[in-house]
Amino acid sequence: MNEGELVKLSAPLLAGEVALVGAGPGAADLLTLAAAKLIVNCDAIVFDALVSDEVLNLAAIGTDLIPAGKRGGRPSASQDDISETLIELAREGKRVVRLKGGDPFVFGRGGEEIRALAAAGIRFRVIPGVTSGVAAPAMAGIPVTDRSVNSSIAFLTGHEAGEDSRVDWPALVQAFPVLVFYMGAKNLPQIARRLMDAGLSGETAVAVMASATLPEEATSIGDLSSAASGELKAASPAIVIVGDVVAGRVAWRG
Ligand code: SAH
């Protein structure tokens, strides 16, 4: 499938084709040109909760806007249901945009969706998006790599800080001077404790950037101690940045 000539990413969708599109962190300004073109010129948009109204408002009047995870009015977060919805819409001959926050393949389950589409013989394309793990630090004025600080970054999910963590925390802090956590707002105190137990100083800088590029955008700066004690708080959705790059911050947003 999709072999042969390379389709221009922003070329109009064919009937029965699905585009898995990254919507970026929120502001429509950070959509790719391909994403914007496909959003305005499709029949149906199946969107995740994190996709902003500003982005959805670009859709043409008459576009079918379908919240993922809700079928027939019933709430259901099943990934199989979402893939099934995409396949059904494509089989009806619709030009479908599957919109996901940030980049579809970064903690976005995009892989599961393209495998389901491929198995069903549905034509699809993938439009990368600006991932929040890069956009949020930028909005906070934090360079995620800074020559004097780091030559590597780890992107992680904050869901791994609980009892059954699969992360080797000591190895992680040894290997990566800068850690960027997605989905870390709720578990921030546990994450901070894990990192200190793994050997990082309580004074290691931490930045929390919530709702980057959205009207309620908010940055908080602290350290691992204040994050562990709950003094440094994070509202969802938030990106948590740990490491000395935070010290090189130049706040440039309002
Ligand atoms: N595919 C997405 C990530 C999905 S996981 C991407 O590439 O960005 C969901 C997590 O993304 C949230 O828990 C939060 O950590 C992060 N996130 C998404 N949008 C955000 C935003 N505007 N500001 C801060 N964090 C955001």
Q: Secondary-structure map with pairings?
A:
Blueprint: E1 18-22, H1 33-40, E2 44-47, H2 53-56, E3 64-67, E4 70-71, E5 74-75, H3 79-91, E6 96-100, H4 110-119, E7 124-127, H5 132-139, E8 154-157, H6 169-175, E9 179-182, H7 188-197, E10 205-210, E11 218-223, H8 224-229, E12 238-242
Parallel strand pairs: 1-6, 1-7, 2-3, 2-6, 8-9
Antiparallel strand pairs: 4-5, 9-12, 10-11, 10-12
Bound molecules: S-adenosyl-L-homocysteine (SAH).
CATH homologous superfamily descriptor of the largest domain: Tetrapyrrole methylase, C-terminal domain
Number of DSSP E strands: 12
What general form does the structure show? elongated
- The CATH class name of the largest domain reads Alpha Beta
N to C succession of SSEs: EHEHEEEHEHEHEHEHEEHE
Our count of helices gives: 8
* Bound ions, cofactors and other small molecules, one mention each: S-adenosyl-L-homocysteine
**Strand order across the largest sheet:** 3-2-6-1-7
Supply Rg.
20 Å
| CATH architecture identity of the largest domain | 2-Layer Sandwich
Helix share bin: 25-40%
| Residue fraction in strands | 15-25%
The termini sit apart by: 47 Å
